[in-house]
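Handout, page 2. Input:
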Amino acid sequence: MKLLGFLATCTIAALTLGARAESPQTRALSLEDCIKIALEHNLDVQIQRINPAIANFSLGASYSSYDPTFGLSGNHSYNLSPGGVDTEGRSFNGQESETDRFSSSLQGLLPWGLNYELGGTMADRYGTVPVGTNRFPFETTSGDVGALTLRQPLLKNFWVDSTRLQIYLNKQNVKISELDVRLQIITTVSDVEQAYFDLIHAQEAVKVQQQALELAERLVAENRRRVEVGALAPLDSKQAESQAASARADLLATQSTRDTTERVLKNLLSDNYGDWANVTVQPTDALLAIPQQFNLQESWRTGLAQRPDLLQAKLSLEKQGYIIRYSKNQLYPQLDLVGAYGYSASSTEFSGAFGQISSADNPFYSVGAQVTIPLGNTSARNNYKSAKATKEQLSLQLKQLQQATLIKIENAMAVAQTSFQRVSATHEARLYAGAALEAEQTKLDKGKSTTFVVLQLQKDLTSARSAEIRALADYNIALARLAQNEGSTLDRRQIGLHVTGAENNYAPAIFTQPPP
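Output:
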């Protein structure tokens, strides 16, 4: 028995130490604190902030078409041709030759579509040739050095080609990715606001249910005293006990809702939930109903000018316009202006050949045009029609999104106005419910009322208190959602976005004050 007692004592001590090690920590946070933490640690924001960097890398890669290409080659060849018999029946020896050939080139594309190639070739050929029945050695060095070849499109691919098209599209994609970051931040901030006010409401709801339980238990205690003195029937006392039990169940439900709501907020604030798992968030802001001036026309103008999704749709429409421009250019024939210029040389040795080139004694040039006309041009014509139809569709989608935005803003404003009116109405209802319960409790004390009526009024007061705090939370949430629909959340919360200039770092830096 002593051993069992010792083990039980050790177990209790271990559990106590574990409970102390894992005791919850309370962290008081304002709404502004929560927003700052979320902007730094929210995983959705962190994921989205990488996209501008990826888009910029893609843009940089699209400029690679303008990178010049340098090539260098060299080879050695050998050739032995057989001898034979000439027309007069005389035999002759075959020819033997070896050639060393070297060439280099620098070629590329310029932004206005000009293709260029600068290079040269030098070949040294030596061996023996038959002359009658004898073989004589020979050596010849020749080449074209400093040859410049140009090709400039004049119709197709003149004002826009595939490279310029891709660069333009990637530039627009960078802007779209930055708007994605802005949209994600607006969404996250709005979600944090809702979760924060929902948590305040949930904590206040727990207090309301605790007060309801205290009222019910007080009534139970009073009824028991009345039963003991014979002033109340035992059946009436059971009604109060039933109400107390129901209040305890409601309290447990509201506590569970509070814990769930708190986890929602902590998930928005963290990129490592383990750091927050044992933290209790205590909001420091109060639920207030600050009157706002609503102007539907002004909110519409703000929404149409600032909503990131609308700006993205406009950029997509601009992208499609450039695609149409490219597709139209592809309808034209291929007409290229071509030209070449350089110097030739021929000598029995390398030094002589290079001497001729340096003296520029043997220049050559050519100029001309090349035209290619596709018969039918089916692909280009259908691509152009498809691009125009796509632009029309995007234009309609933009109009649809604008209309949906106006409706969302109007609905959000109506919800905010109604929520503000509910705050006043529920406040008055709570005051009346409290006064009614107090008066009925006084009547019950004088024996002029019943427990059933008092219990009903207690329920009414609890409902009125819950409705009031719900209305306060809904009003503040409605203001946040109105700003979200307007796209003005960042201005409302004084949050700015700044693209850093660090190498390979294009992710927007987030701060709560305007940039210097």
